[in-house]
Amino acid sequence: MPAVANPILNFLRQQIEQEIREHGPIPFSRYMELCLYDSEFGYYSRNAAQFGKAGDFYTSSDVHAVFGRLLARQFEEMWRAMGSPARINLVEFGPGRGLFAQDVLDWSEKKFPDFFHALLYSLVERSPALRQRIAATLSRHIECDRARVVGVYPAGGPVSNVIVFANEFFDALPVEILSERGSLRIALENGHLVETWARPSPAELEFLDRYSVHPEDSKRLEVCLAAQQAMDRIAASIERGFFIAIDYGYTREEQLAGRHRGTLKAIRQHSISANPYEAPGEQDITADVNFTALAAVCAKHGLRIHKLITQAQFLMGIGEANQFADAFEECRLPQERAKGTLQLKHLVTPAGMGESFHVLVGYRGVAQETAKSLSGLSFGRKQTPDKNVLKT
Question: Of 142, 213, 231, 306, whose CB neighbour count within 10 A is largest?
Answer without folding.
Answer: 231
